[in-house]
Structure formats: C-alpha cells, structure tokens
Amino acid sequence: MTGRFKVIMVDDNISxxxxxxxxxxxxxxxxxxxxxxxxxxxxxxxMPDLVLLDVVMPEMDGFEVIRILKxxxxxxxxxxxxxxxxxxxxxxxxxxxxxxxxxITKPFSGPLLRKRILNQIExxxxxxxxxxxxx
Length: 135
What we know:
By secondary structure, this protein is of the alpha/beta class. The protein has a single domain, classed as 3-Layer(aba) Sandwich (Rossmann fold). The chain is built from five helices and five strands; from the N terminus they run E-H-E-H-E-H-E-H-E-H. Strands 2-1-3-4-5 form a five-stranded parallel beta sheet, sandwiched between helices. Helix 4 links the parallel strand 4 and strand 5. The longest helix has 23 residues. The radius of gyration is 14 Å and the shape is globular.
C-alpha cells in the first residue's frame, strides 16, 4: 500500500477535532467532520481506513451513525472507534454491540490513541486479506 492510512474524525466539538488532528496528523491522513451529515457527505470520496466517532452530537448521535454504517455493504468493514466523554458502562456496551471496534474516553492520550487506531486498521486489513484469499 502506498500513502498513509486515512481517518475521518466526527465530532461537534471544534477543540476535540483540533486536538486529535494535531496528535494524529504526523501519522495518518486526517479528515474532520462536525456532524453525521458531514461524514456521509465525504465518506465515499475519502473511503477511510477508520472512523473516529463521537457519541453525543446534535441531529444524529454516534449510535445511529454506526447503525447506518454497519448496515451498508460499502462501509460495514470500516472500523469505528467511539471517542467520547461518555464513560458510562451502558454507553460503551451499546457502542460495542452495534459494531464499534473500540471505545475511548476523553480526554485521551495521544500515543494510546495512535496505537489503538493502528491496531484496528491492521486487524481490519488482515481480516480483509484473509477473506480475499478465501480463508
């Protein structure tokens, strides 16, 4: 593969987007969206390797976004990591049951965030390669 892995981050909080982009830009191609609509407007053009998704957003929350992504064959294999201030166990359980690959609470550590993103991208690629090889 040539180029860097592509990550779309969706969050309605500009400071979170700025902070995460600063922590990740040297390692990944980072695209940002302020809302679910913004994600859906750009996802086909970008076709990310991973989506970082806030849970609590106006208009459409992260749980509804992941339901839509996982129901669509074009996007269902893209790993989604919830990145949220909601640290309650029920929200985490719900996100994982809807297909989230991971659930990270804010504030987050840059090195841990980068490693968890890389782990999910590598796992996703290995699974896709195994499927492509008929395994």
